[in-house]
Amino acid sequence: MTDFFKGISKIAYEGPETTNEFAFRHYNADEVVMGKTLKDHLRFSCAYWHSFAWPGGDPFGGQTFERPWFGETMALAKLKADFAFEMFDILGVPYFCFHDADVRPEGTNFAENTRNLEEIVDYFAQKMDDTGMKLLWGTANLFSNRRFMAGAATNPDPDVFAYSAATIKTCMDATIKLGGENYVLWGGREGYETLLNTDMGRERKQAGRMLEMVVDYKHKTGFKGAILIEPKPQEPTKHQYDYDVATVYGFLKDFGLENEVQVNIEQGHAILAGHTFEHELATARELGIFGSIDMNRNDYQSGWDTDQFPNNVPEMALAFYEVLRAGGFTTGGTNFDAKLRRQSLDPEDLILAHVGGMDACAAGLKAAAAMIEDGALEEARSARYSGWDTKRAQNLLVSDLEGVEQFVRDNDINPQPRSGRQERLENLVNSYL
């Protein structure tokens, strides 16, 4: 045991009436909902980068957190792992996620980075064996170091492309060795800041080729997990090539990868793209590329990605409604890509932020399950489109313009508008909360 979380016991479920802030009110891991436990539905994961690598800085000020594991040595990287696995145990989460740069010291070159990663992966493997923790996904940080200032796969320098591809391989190897269930590609700088110095066609082809290489390596190694792309529209670049789910799907179709790659959707990124979280989830479901989610929230008064812990149960109910409509998670899960506010300095803050997020997710999922089981919302949706279930309507879709015109004339079609009943349905959703 370390002394960072001294005095904090494992978080237990005590029910909605508890006044103990170090307890779950809604997340009972063993509670069965729609034939599965909440643990298996939600598949919670802690993000290594925000919880253990972020120093508390923002664009206007530097580090505010003082953590005993901060530093670029292997000893401190292992100490960080000790603290991390202790927190995983306190929370009772089954999964974690990481970038390579989160877990290993930065070396002087690629070879040293790889050695450092391999050493910490061996350390992780032992801790995972000891605790039963699992890896939801691994990924490569191809955005923080200054070498990636113009992108990784989309970089104008072929040496950066090569370095990035080699780094991805080492991170895929690490993910495979640790039994990871997915591998994520997040192109933090795969975009442009100005078209004045950008060849969009070339950069897009480079990104496509990199993804083809990743998929090829998946099959060469026999990796059974999913390859996931995480859409994001902007920030820090002006425009990114993986703007939203629909844009990613078009990209995948262009390179013939729509059956090979799924999406990891973040709530905060959906908002930045001008969408709701449930919109992006529904789009992925309809296109057949839903994979996993990064759960957080944005501050709606800020125009950037604030990565706050989730607490809006009505929003989360609509999000998990789409997850359940997609059949739930297979290899994916609910990863807390969320960070403390830079004034939240205490170890207790880190624990309670996750407790609150896990409770809010559980409450949202249970409301979503009640909506699914009751069926009233789907019944109303089906009724709105029921006219299309007739043979007459289906014939319209296989006719041509001349035929449709003749149909309208012959049947004296003069349609009148019908209510969409939005407010009724909003009231219906609120009745489950």
What can you tell me about this protein's structure?
This protein has 433 residues and is of the alpha/beta class. The chain folds into 2 domains: 12-374, Divalent-metal-dependent TIM barrel enzymes (TIM Barrel, Alpha-Beta Barrel); 379-430, no CATH class. The protein is built from 16 helices and 14 strands. The protein has an 8-stranded parallel barrel, surrounded by 5 helices. It has a two-stranded parallel sheet with strand order 1-2. Strands 3-4 form a two-stranded antiparallel ribbon. The two termini are 39 Å apart. The mean pLDDT is 97.
As an assembly, this protein is: single chain
Termini, distance in Å? 39 Å
Strand count, sense and barrel status of the largest sheet are:
8 strands, parallel, barrel
CATH superfamily of the largest domain: Divalent-metal-dependent TIM barrel enzymes
Number of H/I helices: 16
Helix content: 40-55%
- Strand adjacency order, main sheet: 5-6-7-8-10-12-13-14
Bulk shape: globular
Average pLDDT figure: 97
Low-pLDDT segments = none
Order of helices and strands: EEEEHEHHEHHEHEEHEEHEHHEHEHHHHH
Under the CATH scheme, the architecture of the largest domain is Alpha-Beta Barrel
> What is the top-level CATH class of the largest domain?
Alpha Beta
* Radius of gyration based on Cα positions: 24 Å
Total discrete domains: 2
Q: What proportion of the residues form beta strands (DSSP E)?
A: 5-15%
- Helix/strand class: alpha/beta
Protein name: Xylose isomerase
Family: Belongs to the xylose isomerase family.
Binding site for Mg(2+) 1: 230, 266, 294, 337
Active site: 99, 102
